[in-house]
Design brief:
- This protein is mostly helical and 57 residues long.
- Helix content is 30%, strand content 0%.
- The chain has one domain.
Length: 57
């Protein structure tokens, strides 16, 4: 992750929160929609969207 560019901080964070009835893919789509302007201008590049499953205890 590089230096701050315009309004984008050089940080990627993962937040665990109640999804309010949304499934995980809907939440991912919502976040991506918010990031899309930065992707379109080349300020942000997503290198991977790999998903994995975690077993519940």
């Amino acid at each position: 992750v590089g230096p701050k560019t315009d309004q984008i901080n050089p940080v990627i964070s993962i937040t665990i929160e109640f999804l309010g009835g949304k499934d995980l893919q809907e939440k991912v789509d919502e976040i991506r929609k918010n990031l899309q302007p930065s992707i379109d201008t080349g300020q942000l590049e997503i290198e991977s969207e790999e998903k994995t499953s975690i077993k519940q205890l």
